[in-house]
Write a structure and sequence with these properties.
The structure holds two protein chains of two kinds. By secondary structure, chain A is mainly alpha-helical. Chain A contains three helices and two strands. The relative contact order of chain B is 0.13. By secondary structure, chain B is α/β, with parallel strands linked by helices. Classes of the chains: A mainly alpha, B alpha/beta.
């Protein structure tokens, strides 16, 4: 069972603002999902390597290319969806105080 | 022309015989899509300019006697999690309501190079998270063949577009069943290719080790034609496989007599009444076609849901960190607040309930003290599930199973119980975890007239055989 405190802690880690109602329903819903996941604990995985991805046949180097520059997005294109672009950069709220 | 009856091959034939032009077809497809959309909400927006530009090129090529490409003039709909240069791509999220991608996904680029007409972007669950299309910030999609019911998800709009006939084929994305399940709910063909078969470049990331782009079509040959165009190595995606792409169409009509087909016992236990009935009839048909149908066991199936919701949410919590109010069009106003306040408010206001739930779950399972118990454990059990399939394929050539335990459910029926919604993915998630090719092919209706899908699963990169099996069944 997840506590309200834990839910708020995880929300902070995820940089996610939750309303009071959302915190309440997360306590319920995440607890029930995590309860279900308890079943994983008992499985014997002694000596089993974790599977991180699906591998295809071939050598590791098969998907590498020559390290040569090629055209990429322009500064203008890269900033086109920025909320507050400024002089070729992304602008964010002040992080360093004078 | 009636767009609802067109196929990839019939369009090519008609264009070459000058029965209509690609420009006329594009106009008709766009008009029809617009007219039908009030009923289903399958499209979030149409891309007339792009469709008409490619149509004009196809017409010009035909006039000059050049080959217009394998998808010449085919109206294609694209799920809104796949980026299209200059055409807004929202991922079904309020947070990206104004996002205009500066580049095309490789799959989109290849479709247009092959003469396909991108007619619009389709509705979906927000960031492809959901099994009913009810998690879209732009309203749910209605199932065109079962009014009042969900089209399935997350690629509900792409399935609906093909089922209603506004697109001949479409692209969806499948992470845990998001192509196969809506295909089965809408009575169309849906394909989840081998992991790495199709480049993910331009597919907005949800769970990178599980995400696939896959085709929808009204028949197996059309799905095979589309897969051939989009498959193959792409320098822009290091996980795209360098394996050669076979000519699936040429291998479609081969004999399936003598093939050994396995039916996982664990799947049949959980299928509901009419679904089980239709699947059993399908098995009988394969016996009549000369296949040997036998029961097999995939003993770790019962852990798949838990494994999937640990791994997929963990990867999602990391992938979705980029939506921070800086780079992607939407920022909450925090009135002099700090950078962190801005991040939190932007994400809190921008994401819907299911996306927040998964980010929370993913963050939790990766957090200090829980990593080994959940994430690492899940990766080990994923290896066991994959091993089950490898063992099965030592005995049989392919597996047959239901796609979903039940047919399309009513809008609103499951949305308030996330765990119940997650459990409905049980038969599709296992194939996703193993990265094997799997597809849904229609196998009749329930007594209430709701479509049922049969799932065909094969070994890695064995799509040609999977298509042959599905096509033999479809043609019978």
């Amino acid at each position: 069972m997840l506590t309200e405190k834990e839910v708020r802690y995880v929300a902070d880690l995820a940089n996610l603002q939750l309303s009071e109602t959302e915190v309440e329903s997360m306590v319920q819903q995440l607890s029930s999902i995590l309860d279900h996941m308890e079943g994983l604990r008992g499985i014997d995985t002694e000596g089993i390597e974790p599977m991180r991805q699906v591998l295809f046949p071939g050598n590791d180097a098969d998907t590498l290319r020559e390290d040569q520059p090629s055209p990429c997005l322009t500064n203008e294109q890269a900033l086109a969806n920025a909320v507050y672009p400024a002089q070729g950069y992304f602008r964010v709220p002040r992080v360093i105080e004078r | 022309m009636d767009i609802r009856n067109l196929t990839v091959a019939s369009i090519r034939d008609s264009l070459l015989k000058h029965e209509y032009s690609a420009t006329e077809l594009a106009g008709e497809a766009l008009r029809f899509a617009e007219a039908e959309n009030g009923r289903t909400n399958a499209y979030l927006r149409l891309s007339s300019d792009r469709a008409l530009a490619v149509a004009a090129r196809v017409d010009e090529q035909i006039a000059k006697g050049e080959d217009p490409g394998p998808l010449a003039g085919v109206p294609v709909a694209i799920k809104d999690v796949i980026v299209t240069k200059g055409v807004i791509t929202t991922c079904g999220s309020k947070l990206l309501a104004k996002f205009v991608p500066p580049y095309d996904a490789t799959a989109v680029e290849r479709i247009e190079a092959a003469g396909g007409l991108i007619i619009g972007k389709t509705n979906c669950d927000e960031f492809a998270m959901g099994s009913s299309n009810e998690n879209s910030a732009f309203g749910p999609v209605c199932n065109p063949v079962a009014p009042g019911r969900v089209p399935g998800g997350s690629s509900g709009g792409s399935a609906a577009a093909v089922a209603q006939g506004t697109a001949v084929v479409s692209l969806g994305s499948d992470t845990g069943g998001s192509v196969r399940q809506p295909a089965s709910f809408c009575g169309v063909v849906g394909v989840n290719p081998t992991y790495g078969r199709v480049s993910r470049y331009g597919l907005v990331a949800f769970a990178s080790s599980l995400d696939h782009i896959g085709p929808f079509a009204r028949n197996v040959p059309d799905a095979a034609a589309l897969l051939r165009v989009i498959a193959g190595r792409d320098e822009m995606d290091a996980t795209s496989a360098p394996a050669p792409v076979p000519d699936y169409a040429a291998e479609l009509n081969g004999d399936i007599k003598g093939l050994k087909l396995g039916v996982p016992r664990e799947y049949m236990q959980d299928a509901s009444g009419d679904t089980a009935l239709r699947i059993n009839e399908a098995l009988d048909r394969f016996r009549q076609l000369g296949c040997e149908v036998r029961e097999i066991s995939l003993p770790n199936t019962k852990y798949a849901i838990d494994v999937y919701y640990v791994i997929a949410t963990a990867e999602a919590s990391s992938n979705l960190a980029r939506y921070d109010g800086v780079r992607y069009t939407t920022r909450a106003d925090v009135n002099g607040g700090s950078l962190t306040d801005m991040y939190r408010a932007t994400r809190g206001e921008g994401f819907g309930a299911e996306v927040k739930r998964r980010i929370m779950l993913g963050t939790y399972v990766l957090s200090h003290g829980y990593y080994d118990a959940y994430y690492l454990k899940a990766q080990k059990v994923r290896a066991l599930i994959t091993r089950d399939f490898a063992k099965a394929f030592e005995e049989v050539d392919a597996l047959l199973a239901p796609v979903s335990p039940f047919p399309a459910f009513k809008l609103g029926e499951k949305i308030n119980d996330p765990m119940q919604m997650y459990l409905s993915d049980i038969f599709t998630i296992t194939g996703s975890l193993a990265g094997i090719p799997c597809m849904s092919v229609p196998c009749g209706n329930t007594r209430d007239g709701l479509p049922v899908g049969l799932q065909v699963l094969c070994k890695h990169f064995d799509e040609a055989r999977m298509f042959r099996i599905a096509h033999a069944f479809e043609a019978k």
